[in-house]
Amino acid sequence: MPDKPTVLFVCVHNAGRSQMAAGWLRELAGDRVEVLSAGSEPADQLNPIAVAAMSEVGIDIADAEPKILTVDAVRESDVVITMGCGDTCPIFPGKRYEDWELTDPAGKSLDDVRPIRDEIRGRIEALIAEIVPAQGATA
Fold this sequence. Notes:
The protein is α/β, with parallel strands linked by helices.
């Protein structure tokens, strides 16, 4: 893994799960990780309930915009994490791929989205522990 790995989060609409994951990773890893997110069929805007759920924990994702998944985004990423987008993600040898089975927050209430948000946080914390060198560690 490079000194500053790039992580790409992919879901269908790039409006909920992938945006919450990107927000968590930016917040918890800071500038130690490059964060990208995209969707196979991006929505027009973020899911407002996902934005509200993240706001509750002090993370502002309101200015993020859903983006289309590109081959270049996958190519430049070290880790590609999919969330319910099926086989739409191109596969490149040598990349780390994970599929996170997470409930889609679309159409859910804030009470229903909070556990999804919290599960994503736990997965992000585990990911950081795996891909980000410990502070002060020497090679």
